[in-house]
Amino acid sequence: MKFIDEYRDKDLIENLSSQINKSVIHDYTFMEVCGGHTAAIHRFGIPSLLSEKIRLISGPGCPVCVTGTDFIDKAVTYSEMEDVIITTFGDLVRVPGSASSLEKKRVKGADIRVVFSGLEALEIARANPDKKIIFLAIGFETTAPGTAVTVKQADKEDINNFFVLSAHKIMPPAMEAIVSEGVNIDGFICPGHVAAITGSSIFGFIPEKYKIGCVITGFEPTDLLQSILMLITQVNNSSPFVEIQYKRAVTVKGNTIAQKDLKEVFEPCDAIWRGFGVIPSSGLRLQNNYGKFNADIQVPVSIDYKEDDSRCICGEILRGMKTPEQCPLFANICVPENPVGACMVSNEGSCNTWYKYKIVR
Amino acid sequence: MCLSIPAKIVSIDGSMAEVSVGGSLFKAGLHMIENAKVGDYILLHAGFAIQKISEEEAAETLKILKEISDTLNE
Amino acid sequence: MNDLISLNHGSGGKQTHELIKKVFVKKFGMTEPLTDSAILKEMGKTLVFTTDSYVIDPLFFPGGNIGKLAICGTVNDLAVSGAEPKYIAASFIIEEGFPVNDLVTIAESMADEATNAGVKIVTGDTKVVEKGKCDRLFITTSGTGILDYSQEHISTGKRIKPGDKLIINGPLGNHSIAVAGARNKLSFTTPVTSDCASLNHLIEGVLKSCKEIHFMRDLTRGGLAGVMNELAGMINSGIIADEASIPVDDPVRGVCEILGFDPLYLANEGKLLIVTSAEEAEKVLEILRSDALGAFSSIFGEIVPDKRNLVVLNTSVGGKRILDMPSGAQLPRIC
Question: How many CB pairs under 8 A join A and B?
Answer without folding.
Answer: 137
